[in-house]
Every structure is written in C-alpha cells, then in structure tokens.
Amino acid sequence: MSLNIQGAVQNYSKVANESGVMNATPYRIIQMLMAGALDRISAAKGLIGRGDIVGKGRKISDAVSIINGLRRSLDHKIGGEIAANLDALYDYMVRQLTHASVHNDVDVLDEVARLLNTIKNGWDSIPDPAAAKAGMASQSVGVSA
Fold first, then answer.
1. Among the listed residues 55, 49, 33, 28, the one whose alpha carbon sits nearest the alpha carbon of residue 110
2. CATH homologous superfamily for the domain 6-140
C-alpha cells in the first residue's frame, strides 16, 4: 500500500467530518476509512429495515466512495500481487454494494461487511510504521513512549 492516499482522504472528508484526520498517520487514515465504510454499510442495513430507501442509497453511495478511495490509495508498484488482489476485492465490493442498493439486499451488505472486516482486521494487526518510528526516536533520547 502507498502513502498516496490523498484521494481517499478527500472522499472520506466528503462523507464524514472526523476529528483527528488532519493529524493522523497514513496508517491510521486507512483504519478510519475502513471503519467509516463499515459504519455506512451498517447504517444502510438499518435504513433498509426502516424502509428509508433514500437514506439507504446515500449510505451505500458513501461506502462506495470510501472503498473507491481505498482502491485509489493502492500502490501497485510496491504492493504487487497483494495490491492487485485488494484492487479486485474492492472492485467486487463496489459491485456488490451497487447490487445491494438496487435490490435492498441486506445479505449482500453483510457479505461486503465481512470482507471489509477481514481486511481491516489484517490491517489492524500490522504495527503503524509512524508509531514505531516515534517509539524508536523517543527511546533513543531516553523518553518513555
């Protein structure tokens, strides 16, 4: 993955006003994007249950925008096969979200949420490189992190 996530941040900013985005590390921004997409998918499920078709469409559209931002943040030169696989998976998620929106299909929303949660859990298990550098820097000057 790449630090080239400006497009993803712009998409996220359009659909949510999260505090801390401006000072977040690229690693943390990716976490926030995934959490934001999951929140919108969950909200869309509730809106389908309440019959709010317009609201459902907005939430799914927001989730699609965030996932497309995640796709644009992939660096295929550095990420190689992993980036290609994530790109294909994000593309699949967008197509499934479109299907779920058209057909009010909660099961498909659940499927996309499971897939995105799997990616997020994997991402969350990777240490934040910026935090690791900050920890090393504070250790080198005798400061406890």
1. 49
2. Flagellar protein FliS (1.20.120.340)
